[in-house]
Structure formats: structure tokens, C-alpha cells
Design brief:
single chain, 19 helices, about 450 residues, about 75% helix, mainly alpha, globular
């Protein structure tokens, strides 16, 4: 009996691993995300001896619908804010101001920081990249930096230090906050030290990489369709006005009552930022474009949230298998500081899902209560999970990485992913390790 159970568990664990490998392979091949998760869900159900109908009807749809219900409004309001920042010219104004302040020769600094400012204010990573890409083309051309470095610079700014930092109006704070009852600013001091470390190390590495490729004789080379012409006549809002919607959102989402509970729901705060952007900068909106812009935004939101929900649904099937508890117990019992095992568990799940938000959607409800029950402060659990979600999530099958690299920048993984891997996988992982060290040594800091 014991031998039979051991064999079943072994087959199940192997099946889960194979399903994750297949998930990565099929996504890399460009197969539709929904068809991909349906196939990999079947692999998990069969190898773990889970009833197939129950796997799809109960577990998959339970994970899918639960994530959709909890986070659709946040995806929607975040996308609308991003569209408002785009259509009013606010995003471009912020980006250009930072770039002008830094100088074109410091493009490797200005592009990630421009993305980071937008990301911290609640603009989704996809839209941050689209907003800053045209500016990145200009400054990389002026500084004669190889074009293939643009995806790494964009992804670093949009999906690492700013996205996961304390107070950021992003789903990576929303998921732990909703599950653990913590504020978005949880783990404030240690979290900011870790994120600033990521920023500094990433910029140093980016600079060294650019110098290395330029020393080899590489130069900027535009490709068909690149708009590298200057448009000095374009009227943009003043940068102080442009940043106002982000300030409104950040302030509202972090307002607390005497009990520490949020006064304004995050979705309302983000929507308030959207309204303020349109009201204050309405004169910069081209006539007749507003309706189409928001319609496109809603469609973009539905695509993003359903794709993420599908990945969470697949993860829910895995998490309901008996073998998954064996895997999580192995992670929890890794020797060393408990927060280290939390880091490994979270980043592995995010990497498996190919999504930081999707990984957190699975990991936080499962691992969060386990670690708080061990006596670890919820604020530390919140921040460590947010930090570690941004490392292995950026493997080649990540939807955002594929979109920015192949779709937006029209570069290949072969040419550009080496830099992206350094900046969005290695740097955040090291920063997460720093976070674990800080929370272990100084657990009582705000």
C-alpha cells in the first residue's frame, strides 16, 4: 500500500513538472494561452489521478473565476489610468522630462526610471513599455546604443524595482494585501532598501553591458517602421501637471483610518487618478479619440485579466493535487531562515506560471498563512513574496517579456534576452535575497 502510494506520488510530481515544462514550451511556440493551459491541466489531472471533469469544472474554473472576481476591477481601472496617461500625453511628458534631466548620454538610466515612475503610480507594465518605447528609440539612437538593448531597459524599469516596491499601486501589492490584511506599504524600510539595491545594481550592470557591446563595435541600427524623427512641435502637459494623477492615486490608496484599514478602495483610488488625468489635461486630448481609447483599454484589460486568470486556474488544479502539498512542504522545510524558503517557493511558483501576479495569486493564499502561523510578521511575508515574485517570472515564456521583445521592440529572444535575463531575473533574485536578510536581522523595522 505504501509502495503504491509512493509510486503514485512520484508519477504525480513528475507529471506536474512535465506540465510546467510543456507550458513553457507551448507558450514559447506561440500557442494560444487558453489552449495551452487546457492541455497542461489535462496532463496534471491524468498524472495525479484527479477526476478530469472535476479538475476543469471545479478546480480550474474555481481558480479562474476567483482571480477574475477579485482583481478584474483593479486590472480595469489600472488599464484605464494607463490609457488616460497615454492619450493626454502625460506619460510621454514624464518620460521626456526624466530623459532631458538625465541627458541623452545617460539613456540607460533615464529609460528605466521613466518606466519606474509610471509603474509605481499604477500604470500596468505592458502600457508603461508602450508609453516609453518611442522615447527609448530616440535616446538610444542619440547615444548610439544598440537597439537590441531596448527590451532589457524597458522590462527592467517596468517589471522589477518599481512594480514591487512598498506603496506601489500594483497587483503585486494588492494580492498580499487582500490575503494578509496588510497595507500596500508593508515592510516599508526593508522593502525600499531592497528595491533601491535592485535599481542601483541593475543600472550598473546595464551600463557595463552597453559599454561592452559598444566596445565590440555595435551601434544603433533602426529597422523598418521605427519612428526616430524628432517632434518638437508636439504640445505636452507640464510634467508637474502630468504626474498629478499618479500622486492622487498613490495618496488615496495609502490613506488609512485609526485602525489601519484603507479608507479608499484601491480600485476607486486608481479610477480617481484616471478622472483627474482627463479633467486636468483634457485640452491635450485629440477630439473624438477618447471613446475609442477607453474601448481599446477595456479590450486590453479583458485580454490581460482572462489570460492571467487562466494561468491561475491551471495553478489551482496543481494546488489541489495531493502531490503539490508534498512539493510545498519540501519548500517550507528547506534548511535555513524560513523567509528563504518563502522566497524560493514564491519565485518558483511565479516562474512556473510565467507571471508574477499569477504566481502570487496562487502562492499567497497557500504559503502566506503557513508562514504567518510560524510567527513571522505579515508585513514581512507580504514584502518578501512581492519581491521574490519578480525574479523567475521573467523567464522567456512570460507573456510580458514576449510582448515587449517580439511584439513592441521587434527583436528576437536570441539577440536581446541575455540582457533582459540579467536585469529582470538575476537582479531581482539577488534583491530578494537581500530582503530576506534584512527582514531576518531587522524584523521590527516599519
Amino acid at each position: 500500500m505504501i509502495k503504491g502510494e509512493l509510486e503514485m506520488d512520484t508519477i504525480g510530481i513528475i507529471g506536474i513538472v512535465l506540465a510546467f515544462i510543456l507550458l513553457t514550451f507551448l507558450i514559447m511556440k506561440g500557442l494560444n494561452i487558453f489552449l495551452t493551459v487546457f492541455i497542461t491541466t489535462l496532463v496534471v489531472a491524468v498524472t495525479t489521478q484527479m477526476p478530469i471533469y472535476e479538475a476543469y469544472k471545479t478546480n480550474f474554473m474555481g481558480g479562474f473565476s476567483g482571480f477574475f472576481q477579485n482583481y478584474f476591477l483593479l486590472f480595469l481601472t489600472g488599464t484605464l489610468l494607463a490609457k488616460a496617461m497615454d492619450v493626454t500625453g502625460a506619460a510621454k511628458s514624464i518620460a521626456m522630462t526624466i530623459i532631458k534631466f538625465m541627458g541623452k548620454d545617460l539613456a540607460f538610466i533615464s529609460v528605466p526610471i521613466a518606466c519606474g515612475v509610471l509603474a509605481y503610480g499604477g500604470v500596468t507594465a505592458h502600457v508603461c513599455a508602450f508609453c516609453v518605447f518611442s522615447i527609448a528609440l530616440q535616446v538610444f539612437k542619440a547615444a548610439d546604443i544598440p537597439r537590441r538593448c531596448i527590451p532589457g531597459a524597458l522590462c527592467f524599469g517596468c517589471s522589477t524595482f518599481a512594480m514591487i516596491s512598498p506603496g506601489a499601486v500594483q497587483i503585486h501589492n494588492a494580492v498580499p494585501s487582500n490575503n494578509l490584511g496588510t497595507p500596500y506599504t508593508a515592510g516599508f524600510v526593508n522593502g525600499w532598501i531592497s528595491c533601491i539595491f535592485m535599481l542601483v545594481v541593475g543600472l550598473i550592470w546595464l551600463k557595463a553591458y552597453i559599454k561592452k557591446v559598444k566596445d565590440r563595435g555595435e551601434h544603433f541600427a533602426a529597422i523598418d517602421g521605427d519612428d526616430v524623427s524628432d517632434n518638437d512641435d508636439q504640445k505636452l502637459p507640464h510634467p508637474l501637471v502630468a504626474i498629478l494623477p499618479l500622486v492622487v492615486t498613490i495618496i488615496l490608496v495609502n490613506l488609512k483610518n485609526s485602525d489601519g484599514a484603507a479608507i479608499v478602495p484601491v480600485e476607486v483610488a486608481v479610477f480617481a487618478g484616471t478622472v483627474s488625468a482627463i479633467v486636468v489635461m483634457f485640452k491635450h486630448v485629440k477630439k473624438g479619440i477618447l471613446s475609442k481609447t477607453f474601448t481599446d483599454g477595456i479590450q486590453m484589460c479583458l485580454s490581460a485579466v482572462t489570460a492571467t486568470s487562466a494561468v491561475v486556474g491551471f495553478g489551482a488544479v496543481v494546488s489541489h493535487s495531493k502531490q503539490f502539498s508534498i512539493i510545498t512542504n519540501a519548500m517550507i522545510n528547506i534548511p535555513g531562515p524560513k523567509l528563504l524558503s518563502l522566497l524560493i517557493g514564491t519565485t518558483v511558483i511565479a516562474g512556473i506560471c510565467g507571471s508574477a501576479s499569477g504566481g502570487l495569486g496562487i502562492a499567497v493564499p497557500i504559503l502566506g498563512p503557513v508562514y504567518t502561523s510560524l510567527g513571522i510578521q505579515a508585513s514581512a511575508v507580504h514584502r518578501v513574496m512581492a519581491l521574490s515574485s519578480s525574479a523567475l517570472d521573467s523567464l522567456p515564456h512570460n507573456g510580458y517579456i514576449v510582448t515587449v521583445t517580439n511584439g513592441l521592440c521587434r527583436e528576437t529572444h536570441k539577440a536581446s534576452y541575455g540582457l533582459t535575463f540579467r536585469l529582470t531575473v538575476i537582479v531581482p533574485f539577488i534583491g530578494s535575497l537581500l530582503g530576506v536578510l534584512l527582514f531576518t536581522l531587522f524584523p521590527n523595522l516599519p
